[in-house]
Design brief:
445 residues; alpha/beta; Four Helix Bundle (Hemerythrin (Met), subunit A); Rossmann fold; 3 domains
Length: 445
């Protein structure tokens, strides 16, 4: 989302590198470019004005450390101000009270509210909580059924709402049910509208009064830019939001909503949706996002994503197989699947320091995600015996696999050749005196 903004910041820093020190003359030029970049990214005008004034004051008023060049000094100040603009620090859900704690999700139709309910429930379950989903939108056709289907996909219980009941009664009864059945977090999927109206707000206020939620979270579409900011402002004035969830942060919008919402409304961004999969919801860290915008990467998030896919027992078993030359296509497929779950290749590259402003240059060089999907399809078209022993893959078997995976025999052959090369390399890693396997494999900690 911030690709263009990152490139603009990189250009500004290049102009400062040619100067021996920061002066009012060169800082004015740099800030002019920053101002234009932020406005083009659809950041609120008043937010941009306040941001550039703060950066100028700090850049000219502070002593430059002897270890910092002008561009390093400038980026240090800009990073701090972008972080402050987005809230300063990550903010958790308000769950520290007697359970069950209701969490209201509100927003306009089409913002992804129902899907986000499922994503949030899955995230909370990973944090060892017992979430309970409540469909309280009795107006949109199939809204209740949609949440039930989502709950079934992720294994989270869903309240059996009556489509003819008052949404306030549904939320009240669901909260009682959760209390009696040991659920500690109740996620309320409330109704939306195509626009903000008093009828919608009155219903949401009644639900708030009935269940006293720990959080009221607005689900807003980041792709709508300043419209999302205006929606957040209106909801906040009526309901006193405790936070915002920005969806579609993996899209190609300009990013102004993420940079403006906190400053304009006072409500922090607590989570961001970064994909369509149900596990594609992440906590929002202002400092990490600031680093990514400035092309400084986001190593902490990259490490966390890698660690989520690591099972210590599986890693030890894989090392044992490698040492005994028992690495198979089944093991190969498992590691490829873990990489694909970490997110898109562009997202992963953006987390590496120095790569943020070079994504367009790397479009052709980055690993092809469609190639990864074809590889998985080929392996999935093999029998268990074939995955365990590639030596039995004769010509007729390879034709059958190509037909079953929608690929060609040449692609099957190429996969087998790549696997054999990888297998040989991994065997060398596993030799006595070779590198320590557990720390050097890309799928290990």
């Amino acid at each position: 989302m911030f690709e263009n903004l990152t490139e603009k910041f990189q250009d500004v820093l290049k102009t400062l590198r040619g100067h021996g020190r920061i002066s009012e003359g060169n800082i004015e030029g740099a800030l002019r470019e920053v101002r234009m970049a932020l406005l083009e990214a659809d950041v609120n005008y008043n937010v941009v004005k306040e941001f550039t004034a703060a950066v100028k004051e700090k850049a000219l008023g502070a002593e430059v450390l002897s270890s910092l060049s002008p561009d390093q000094h400038f980026i240090k100040i800009v990073h701090a101000e972008i972080t402050r603009m987005m809230g300063g620090q990550a903010e958790e859900l308000n769950l520290a009270r007697r359970p069950p704690v209701p969490v209201m999700l509100v927003g306009l139709q089409g913002s992804g509210k129902t899907t986000t309910c499922g994503k949030l429930a899955l995230l909370l379950e990973k944090r060892k909580r017992r979430p309970f989903l409540v469909p309280a939108d009795v107006y949109r056709p199939a809204a209740i059924e949609q949440l039930k289907v989502l709950g079934g996909q992720i294994g989270i219980p869903v309240f059996d709402s009556d489509p003819g009941a008052d949404p306030v009664d549904i939320c009240r009864e669901a909260n009682k049910y959760a209390d009696l059945n040991g659920f500690d977090t109740v996620i309320l999927d409330t109704a939306g509208r195509l626009h903000i109206d008093e009828g919608l707000m009155e219903e949401l206020r009644r639900i708030k009064a009935a269940v006293d939620p720990g959080d009221i979270l607005l689900v807003a579409d980041a792709m709508t830019g300043q419209d999302a900011v205006n929606v957040a402002k209106a909801f906040h004035q009526k309901l006193a939001l405790t936070g915002v969830i920005l969806t579609k942060m993996d899209g190609d919008a300009r990013g102004g909503a993420a940079l403006s919402i906190r400053s304009v409304t006072g409500a922090p961004i607590k989570f961001v949706g970064v994909g369509e999969k149900l596990d594609a919801l992440e906590p929002f860290f202002p400092d990490r996002m600031a680093s990514r915008i400035l092309g400084m990467g986001d190593i902490l998030t990259l490490v966390e994503k890698a660690q989520e896919g690591v099972d210590e027992k599986q890693a030890r078993e894989l090392e044992r197989k490698l040492r005994k030359n028992q690495f198979t296509l089944e093991d190969f497929r498992e590691q490829l699947a873990k990489v694909s779950k970490m997110g898109s290749m562009d997202d992963l590259l953006g987390m590496i320091p120095g790569m943020g402003g070079k994504l367009k240059e790397l479009k052709g060089a980055a690993p092809d995600e469609s190639e990864l999907k074809r590889t998985l399809a080929i392996i999935d078209s093999m029998t268990p015996a074939e995955r365990r022993n590639v030596k039995i893959l004769n010509g007729s078997r390879r034709k059958r696999i190509a037909l079953g995976s929608g690929t060609t025999v040449q692609e099957v052959n190429r996969l087998l050749k790549n696997f054999q090369q990888a297998e040989g390399m991994l065997k060398r890693f596993a030799q006595p005196g070779g590198r320590k396997m557990g720390r050097n494999l890309p799928f290990s900690r």
